[in-house]
Design a protein that fits this description.
The chain has one domain. The protein is mainly α. Helix content is 86%, strand content 0%. The protein is elongated, with a radius of gyration of 14 Å.
């Protein structure tokens, strides 16, 4: 199984096991993206590949932003 397939598999399985009424889909996708980014960053460190490390950090930031947006949407929905 290639790295990309493993990362996609991690995202899907994570979604299945962590989905709850307390987290919406966007929050879960953001968390998966953050995890993928961390894995990518660590692979970059192990292989001494600065580009891979940077791409991992960018992926983590995108995931964090997605989680925040999901959390805000959930809070707005709960208050309505």
């Amino acid at each position: 199984m290639e790295l990309e397939e493993r990362l996609r598999y991690t995202d899907v399985t994570m979604k299945e096991f962590t989905m709850s009424e307390y987290m919406n889909e966007q929050e879960i996708r953001g968390r998966g993206r953050r995890i993928r980014g961390k894995i990518q960053e660590e692979i970059g460190k192990l292989t001494n590949n600065k580009t891979e490390q940077l791409e991992g950090k960018v992926e983590q930031a995108k995931g964090k932003a997605s989680e925040k947006i999901g959390k805000l949407r959930r809070q707005v929905k709960e208050r309505s």
